[in-house]
């Protein structure tokens, strides 16, 4: 069953508009998930919202939002007050500008979406906006409100539809300067650099996301299988990080030899089949 759209509204370019729907392009529902249980009874744990001072249960209708301005002092807001702050992008993604794709800084990328026309009447308008961007090699930049929060969003041609990516604001992205300030300037010897470049060449291949293996997920599934079968498990020995011994040149030479050997016998990674019960595991 196809997922439900996260958002429905209109895509607008100047006076041209069309109804669209945004669908999440990623999903975490396939991961193993756990419930929290009482260790002694095996029953599920339930969380309740209680008053911090009186420890009395608070009904949902009596809960409001508060912004702390100093210790124990809050500015309170009702949901109705926030709902009055409707902005134009609540129901419309208007493309404000276009930028070259190569100028985008991926630190600002947040959540990906697929954009599809939501009405046969608007398919021509959708297609012309998509194909015009494709012809110019440009990405559209606009704004969208998802879950009551406005976000910048970019849109680009992707197959027969559009791919969208919500963006973080500049105040959410940390400047790298303070992190890189103490990294010294080092003059790398030519031989050392060439060895590293050769290693890169031996490991160069096409991007294959299907070859990625979630080793932790695989190990969790195997652990659950063993426990379900009643197998007694011993405590595994902790694995420490592998330490490199030797100078950089020697290590690069050994790495290059290893890469060449692996390159001759390397077979494509295969993602192991997961059990059908993987989607939801109930402890």
Q: State mean pLDDT (0 to 100 scale).
A: 84
Query: Which overall shape is indicated by the principal axes computed on the Cα atoms?
Result: extended
CATH topology of the domain at 1-36 and 80-204: Ku70, Chain: A, Domain 2
Radius of gyration: 27 Å
Low-confidence stretches: 265-283
Structural class: alpha+beta
Helix amount, in percent?
10-25%
Strand percentage, roughly?
Answer: 15-25%
Summarize the main sheet: 8 strands, mixed
How do the strands of the widest beta sheet line up side by side? 5-1-2-7-10-9-8-6
* N to C succession of SSEs: EEEEHEEEHEEEHHHH
Q: How does this model look, in words?
A:
With 283 residues, the chain is of the alpha+beta class. It has a domain at 1-36 and 80-204: Ku70, Chain: A, Domain 2 (Beta Barrel), CATH 2.40.290. It has helices at residues 79-83, 123-136, 177-180, 190-202, 215-228, 248-265, and strands at residues 7-13, 16-24, 65-70, 73-77, 92-94, 97-100, 109-117, 138-146, 149-158, 161-167. The strands form two sheets. An eight-stranded mixed beta sheet has the order 5-1-2-7-10-9-8-6. The protein has a two-stranded antiparallel sheet with strand order 3-4. The longest helix has 18 residues, at 248-265. The protein starts with 6 loop residues before the first strand and ends in an 18-residue tail after the last helix. Mean pLDDT is 84; it is low at 265-283.
């Amino acid at each position: 069953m196809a997922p439900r759209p996260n958002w429905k509204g209109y895509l607008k370019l100047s006076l041209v508009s069309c109804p669209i729907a945004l669908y999440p392009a990623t999903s975490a529902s396939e991961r193993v998930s756990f419930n929290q249980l009482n260790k002694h009874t095996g029953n599920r744990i339930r969380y309740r919202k209680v008053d911090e001072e009186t420890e009395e249960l608070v009904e949902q209708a009596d809960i409001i939002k508060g912004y702390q301005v100093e210790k124990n002092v809050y500015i309170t807001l009702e949901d109705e007050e926030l709902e009055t702050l409707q902005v134009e992008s609540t129901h419309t993604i208007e493309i404000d500008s276009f930028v070259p794709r190569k100028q985008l800084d991926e630190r600002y990328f947040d959540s990906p979406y697929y954009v599809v026309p939501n009405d046969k009447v608007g398919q021509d308008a959708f297609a012309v906006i998509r194909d015009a961007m494709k012809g110019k090699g440009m990405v559209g930049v606009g704004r969208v409100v998802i879950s009551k929060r406005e976000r910048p969003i970019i849109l680009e041609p992707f197959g027969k539809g559009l791919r969208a990516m919500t963006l973080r604001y500049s105040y959410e992205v940390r400047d790298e300067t303070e992190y890189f300030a103490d990294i010294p300037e080092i003059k790398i010897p030519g031989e050392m650099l060439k060895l590293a470049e050769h290693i890169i060449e031996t490991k160069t291949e096409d991007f294959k996301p299907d070859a990625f293996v979630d080793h932790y997920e695989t190990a969790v599934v195997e652990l659950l299988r063993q426990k379900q079968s009643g197998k007694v498990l011993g405590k595994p020995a902790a694995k420490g990080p592998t330490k490199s011994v030797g100078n950089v040149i020697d290590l690069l030479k050994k790495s290059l030899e290893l890469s060449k050997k692996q390159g001759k016998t390397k077979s494509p990674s295969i993602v192991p089949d997961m059990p059908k019960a993987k989607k939801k595991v109930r402890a």
